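To close the section, here is one more complete example, presented without commentary so you can practise reading it yourself. The ligand is adenosine-5'-diphosphate.
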Amino acid sequence: MTRVNRIVKIVYILSKYRLDDFLQAAPLSGPLRYVLMLSPWRLLPEPVLSRGERLRLALEELGPIFIKFGQMLSTRRDLLSDDIADELRHLQDRVPPFSGEQSTLIIEKALGQNINTLFTEFDVTPLASASVAQVHSAKLHSGEEVVIKVIRPGINVTIGQDLQLLFTLARLLEKYWADGRRLRPVDLVSDYKKTIFNELDLQIEAGNTSQLRRNFQDSSLLYIPLVYWDYTRRNVLVMERIHGIPVADIAALKKQNTDMKKLAERGVEIFFTQIFRDSFFHADMHPGNIFVSKVNPAEPQYIAIDCGIVGSLRPEDKNYLARILLAFFKRNYRHVAALHIESGWVPENTPIAEFETAIRSVCEPIFEKPLKDISFGQVLLRLFQTARQFNMEIQPQLVLLQKTLLNVEGLGRQIWRNG
Ligand SMILES: Nc1ncnc2c1ncn2[C@@H]1O[C@H](COP(=O)(O)OP(=O)(O)O)[C@@H](O)[C@H]1O
Ligand SMILES: [Mg+2]
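Output:
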């Protein structure tokens, strides 16, 4: 697609869904303004759907790479207002599965052997299918049950094109949109590009899986499936098949008498162990990737899959993070502010008194709630939102941590309430 075509497509989508609404709040300048003003779709009736819904529909029309981008954005509550974040959470990718025959060919080519030589059983109907990969079940000749994750054919090309479109849009917004400087769309797209290219390389996911498995080797809290490295390539990953209960299936968990309180506590314990012991955490903790072992419901063990996205913290950041949270709980906001400066998270010349006041005003209401209802994720989110006003360059790893924390806590609370 040429640059002109890309811009035409962007303008078409922007106007069709009347996304110029967003731009009114923070106006456009330069050529974009006139293009939108003159576009014929503006003659259509006033939109009835909310702006969040229209944004969601536009992304769905643009396809899987945009959908994933929107899903990622939906977790950036430090950037987006709640109505938009909530709507983007409902983005669905409806990509049809590719055929089992295609999977077979990809696997045979990657591993250089006939499918029957590789496996005694291979189910051509996928267990699950998503925009980037799909998963088949199979059995090794040695008898082990496995799953095979296969990257969707041709996805590289699609991603390349769609990223260009995203970058074009981001650059235009950054240049001509009043909110563009604050939101830094080009950086957002760059981060996304990294994540998505990591997801395309299953050796990275396999490496993360092995590392996490080793970190929890002797743990009764968390189980990570074994990777079969001999059968793993860039676009094919073979790992042990697990048979847990999806963590969102509360009914099934209760039916086997799972100790829900323990389950909730263990979730949080696992998370903090990953952060503070290992500095290496699974950062894609949405319910679809988490299962609970059926083995001992009184001592429930988690099983995590899909380790494509992990985060790691530098030792000094880990240290600051712990100290900031402590200072927060002592309501020592001056110290919270000082630590942000000392760590280099905000510039050295930040006016500390003002920063302290801003932190106090967002943190104080949190203490209205009983301690058990205070969310660390929320606390971090508020702190980052405040720090952003003071030009904090929030490191991607910290954002990842804060997002994961919100997920883990949300999940924990849901389980706890059912206990
Ligand atoms: N090791 C496994 N054992 C059993 N089922 C699995 C395993 N790995 C993946 N699955 C199934 O396939 C689905 C998609 O796998 P996942 O790794 O989460 O892919 P995606 O990156 O597309 O989310 C999972 O939600 C789960 O139902
Ligand atoms: Mg998944």
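Once you have examined the tokens, check your reading against these statements. The mean pLDDT is 89. The first helix runs from residue 3 to 16.
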